[in-house]
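Rotation project, supervised by the postdoc (A.L.). Task for the rotation student: set up a whole-complex structure prediction and record inputs and outputs verbatim in this book. Inputs entered:
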Amino acid sequence: MAELLIRVHDKINADFYLNCQCAKRGDVIVICEDDWGWSAIERTTAEWRILRAPESAADLSGLLAPEPATHPTRRSRTLQRRQFHLDLDRMTGPLKQYIDDDSRAAPLFALAAGEIGNYHRRRPPIADPSGAAPDWNIF
Amino acid sequence: MAVHREWISGNIFIRPNQLEQRGDVIHGHRHHFDHTTIVFTGAVHVLATFPDGSTREGDFKAPSHFLIRKDVEHVITANEDGTIIWCVYSHRTPQGEIAEEFTGWDKAIT
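Outputs recorded:
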């Protein structure tokens, strides 16, 4: 089993490119083993939630992968911190209530086996506003 | 230009091409599947013609790669002597299912 610290509110930077790299709503920040000793801030801040999943940390590690570059020497400036995220807007019922509750009445929420797959989504690439073609090597 | 025998690695096909002299050309052709071309040595110029008739060009110097989507006609010209490129593609997913369809770039990453 594993416990995931996820962000529920976008982290914002005034610079467009730095903002692309900031963690966003649904991003998994870290995955730890079951019964992890989360800090008081991690258990109470409105920015994060903690989900407990039956799957192992290794099985879920793909949620920590950054958006990969499409070329070894020309990296897009709009690569995002996470390639995948949990689509929190798809959550319903008690889980949605937990996600929406900034008061953090409950420190964590336990998911059913396989449930996390219902929310696992790939983030679409972000277009570069400077006009630099992100797909310069794609015809 | 020397076209070597095609290699198979798992579900991946590899077609190496050697463009021995600057100016050597792989003439315009298209495929019914996406493929990636890896530029191992040298450099190439790519002229792509899309199904709507529009064109785009690009230059790639090793180490580099580019993706040619299905039905895009492409002409590859060596910009340097001793250019070696590998065309890499798959007709099946890693799970073995037939994938002779447009998968784009995004779905190539699972």
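Student's summary: The longest helix of chain A spans residues 93-100.
Supervisor addendum: The first strand of chain A starts at residue 2 and ends at 7.
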